[in-house]
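User: Sequence in, structure out. Go.
Assistant: Echoing your sequence, followed by the structure tokens.
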Amino acid sequence: MTIYITSVRLSAETIRTAREKASTLARSLSDALVRAWTFTDPNLSEQGVAAKRAELEAGFRAAAQTHLQKLTADVSNARQYLAQAARENTQLPDDAAGLIRAEQKWRQVEKILDAGGDLFTQIRTADADTALAIAEFGPS
């Protein structure tokens, strides 16, 4: 799997904004239900108004359910994409050249540590390859 930065950003944004979207949906449904419950029409009988209120309420609930299902599916898909991308891109390469590069990255970090450097600083400032090398070869 190749990581596409835009896909990662969009997936992260989907997850980040999910709570806000769910809250907005809940408020919209609440407002719509109030409109349904207070619906009046002077041309309808009491039974007609009650039937229309029930029809409106059912329609609003169905629409909200559809939006909620889409939001849930979007969040689930984003979570799965990010988890898959993380799994596939947080492992050392399995080819010989990749392993040699990872070991070289670790040797560079090891030299800094031997000179009195801090492991946490190395982790914070590491590129992806160095971070993977530290995870693989570094102290637990």
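User: And one key feature?
Assistant: The mean pLDDT is 90.
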